[in-house]
Design a protein that fits this description.
Elements lengths: L2 E7 L12 H10 L4 E4 L2 E2 L16 H4 L1 H7 L7 E8 L8 E4 L3 H6 L7 H11 L3 E4 L17 E6 L4 H13 L4 E5 L12 E4 L6 H10 L3 E3 L7
Parallel strand pairs: 1-2, 2-4, 3-4, 6-7, 7-8
Antiparallel strand pairs: 1-9, 4-5, 5-6, 9-10
């Protein structure tokens, strides 16, 4: 049996740009034949209220609201995991983070002020993976691969050329991990990316192990399996 998982998804509850409530997202992905999603809501200056933007650690309950709503709809056949898409102050780049926990978010202060080198070091201390999201989208700057575990080589909202360049960049820099995600914000983004595995992913540990092993297929038009 094969299993499908979405690795890049935003909820209306948390992400300013998200248009679909978390519970509805889970329903849509179940109907699309997926076995789980990773909620990667934006952890960025645009997410938090002006009074909290410099102290987002005081508003983690709000940040987790989309994830918590999605989690209510999880069951033995559908996993909901916590991830993150982080953007630092005064930058345009985005980074997908896998293996995130509530404890990590509550105990490590303002993550937006760390920037790639310091955040990557913290991620390694906490057994997380960091990949640059849609690295060839307009306004993106590719960072030093030393501060990344990999790259998003298929993004459902990016054009084929940008995704192709991302895959070439990952190859050139011998990146160990390549991922695919729909970058779900609206209904038409549904099921345009993700991964296919031969074993179920129930926990963050499962996800990290499978991504590190490379034992998965990517979903996307480049791979002829959307």
């Amino acid at each position: 049996m094969q299993y499908k998982y979405e690795l890049h998804c935003h909820t209306k509850e948390t992400s300013l740009c998200g248009q679909v409530p978390a519970g509805e997202i889970v329903k849509m992905y179940k109907e699309a034949g997926y076995n789980g999603i990773v909620i990667t809501d934006h952890y960025s200056p645009m997410t938090f209220k002006p009074s909290r933007v410099w102290r987002p650690q005081t508003d983690i309950d709000f940040y987790l609201s989309g994830y918590k709503e999605a989690l209510k709809c999880a069951d033995e056949n559908f996993s909901v995991l916590l991830g993150m898409e982080i953007r630092y102050y005064a930058t345009a780049n985005d980074y997908l983070v896998y293996g995130v926990t509530e404890e990590f978010l509550r105990n490590n202060g303002n993550l937006m002020k760390l920037y790639p080198k310091k955040f990557y070091s913290l991620a390694k201390e906490n057994n997380m993976l960091v990949v640059q999201a849609h690295p060839f989208r307009k306004m993106m700057i590719r960072i030093n691969p030393a501060y990344l575990d990999g790259a998003e080589v298929h993004n459902g909202k990016s054009d084929v050329e940008s995704n192709f360049k991302a895959a070439q960049w990952a190859d050139k820099n011998n990146m160990a991990i390549r991922v695919s995600g729909s970058d779900f914000h609206r209904p038409h983004n549904l099921a345009t990316g993700g991964i296919i595995t031969d074993e179920p992913i129930k926990t963050n540990d499962d996800l990290l192990r499978i991504l590190r092993s490379g034992k998965y297929e990517m979903i996307g038009e480049e791979f002829n399996n959307v």
